[in-house]
Design goal:
The chain has 490 residues and is an alpha/beta fold. Helix 16 links the parallel strand 19 and strand 20.
């Protein structure tokens, strides 16, 4: 078949599943066809939670085969969550499966890191939000507890970079992913020698950082023979899934606010340069890299993980409800009766989420939500109020005001959450596209092939490709009163 630079293959990995999607630029729109979907389950072995890296790679191969049966994509791009990595030895072999960011090995590591290098110095260099799961803390746990593993390592590759290496043999670090590690100098866009030296992290394991949209290489001859396919380009897209989603924000404005909604809520704005000062340090907000060497000032907020994990608990109890049914029950509950701080540490691990929510409300002297609907309502309104709180922090950081909020990603299928976000923030909410991450991945590939000229054209095309919905704020007085109560819980 002749090469078709208007057709590409996107792999979009989430925390629980992954997909292979053919994207085709046709008549000024991006048309998507899902050709493969697969489960992405962590595996607990002994006391460690791993990703099933080899199974993930197997599923990538299956997606490539199915895509070739359906069409003729010119290239492949892979996006995943941030921070996690695999280690490659001097002979190019994977030393062990990647460890999951929810694994307990980073417990207490922040305190250990700050014994070796001052916390404010780390922030001044990286501009990253401090989270237990950041790569810096994962690697330092190896320095302290498994130094023999680091001695065997020749290269550290973040998850999408690892898969790109498996496919091409090329070892590179894509810019947006590198910025999630808390090891990169945000202003100079290079690995920080000050941090690696202070923490005894081997400098040699850090690969060359390349811009988003770089053509890494081609699928190797060996893999082409194995899969009976012709060679395809492998493009390092905006490989951090958040940044792929940001590419897909359907706006023509330079200044905009977005919420990428899923298991996590990523709340932020796109900037030309990082903002790193005492205020951003005090509020623990992150500067992460975006497509085109932009910076995304954002906050990681625990998102629909709270509903997902609650649903898993109810299923264990024999009460199996779909997300749509949970939303109906939440709408029937009396709103604004009780709230949680979504980012309280007790809500991070897996387990009995409804019980933890009830315990939080009890210890903070609030009405305890009893029914399933009351618990889901509590989650949604708490997320909406946390969004307002974060919006105020970002506006204080940028010294700008924003007249609307773009909500993107799978979480916007909850109309209740979208409406509550409009109510809580007293701003218009524009919801869409749902498939933001996949669309952004596809768009970056199409920019790399030359099928799309630039980011402005990409966003215009994306705006035409999927519907968006508008939500207007309601009941502002009641939500303002609720916000004052909510802030006492933070």
């Amino acid at each position: 078949m002749a090469e078709n630079k208007n057709q590409v293959l996107a792999f979009d990995f989430g925390a629980s599943s992954g997909r292979a999607i053919i994207g085709t630029l046709e008549e000024g729109k991006i048309k998507m066809e899902e050709v493969h979907r697969f489960s992405n389950d962590p595996v607990i072995l002994g006391d460690t939670m791993y990703w099933d890296t080899l199974r993930q790679y197997f599923e990538i191969k299956q997606g490539i085969i199915k895509a070739r049966q359906k069409g003729n994509p010119y290239s492949i791009g892979i996006d995943t969550w941030g921070v996690d990595f695999g280690l490659i030895d001097e002979k190019g072999r994977l030393l062990e499966n990647a460890v999951h960011y929810r694994d307990a090995r980073t417990n207490g590591m922040q305190e250990e890191v700050f014994k070796a290098i001052e916390k404010d110095q780390v922030y001044e260099l990286t501009g990253n939000q401090f989270e237990n799961f950041n790569t810096i803390f994962q690697l330092y746990s190896l320095v302290l507890n498994r130094p023999e593993l680091l001695k065997q390592a020749e290269t550290m590759l973040l998850t999408p970079d690892l898969f790109n290496y498996f496919l091409t043999g090329e070892k590179k670090a894509e810019y947006t992913m590198a910025t999630t590690t808390q090891l990169m100098d945000a202003k100079n866009k290079v690995w920080s020698k000050e941090i690696t030296k202070a923490l005894n992290i081997p400098w040699k394991i850090l690969p060359e950082i390349v811009p988003s949209g770089t053509v890494i290489g081609e699928i190797s001859k060996t893999i082409c023979e194995e899969l009976s396919i012709e060679p395809m380009k492998v493009i390092s897209v905006a490989s951090h899934d958040t940044q792929s989603a940001v590419v897909a924000v359907p706006t023509d404005k330079e200044d905009f606010i977005f919420i990428s909604c899923g298991t996590w809520s990523l709340f932020g704005t796109e900037l030309k340069a990082p903002i790193i000062n005492k205020h951003t340090f005090d509020i623990n907000i992150s500067n992460e890299g975006g497509y085109g060497n932009t910076t995304t000032l954002l906050k990681n907020i625990i998102g629909l993980w709270l509903v997902q994990e609650s649903r898993r608990q109810w299923i264990r109890e024999g009460k199996e409800y779909g997300f749509g049914e949970l939303e109906v029950m939440a709408k029937e509950a009396t709103p604004l009766m009780s709230f949680i701080n979504p980012d309280a540490p007790e809500f991070m691990p897996a387990g009995d989420m409804p019980r933890r929510i009830q315990e939080f409300c009890k210890k903070t002297n609030q009405k305890v939500p009893e029914t399933i609907g009351e618990i889901v309502c509590c989650i949604n309104q708490s997320l909406a109020l946390k969004y307002r709180y974060t919006l105020e922090q970002i506006e204080a950081s940028t010294k700008k005001t924003y007249d609307k909020i773009h909500m993107i990603g799978g979480g916007i299928q909850s109309k209740l959450l979208c409406q509550m976000t409009a109510n809580a923030s007293n701003k218009k909410v524009f919801a869409g596209p749902i498939e933001a991450t996949a669309l952004g991945n596809i768009a970056v590939q199409l920019m790399a092939t030359g099928a799309i000229k630039d980011m402005q054209e990409a966003r215009e095309i994306i705006a035409r490709s999927e519907e968006t919905y508008e939500y207007m704020p309601e009941n502002s007085k009641e939500w303002d009163e609720a916000y004052e109560k909510f802030k006492t819980l933070l």
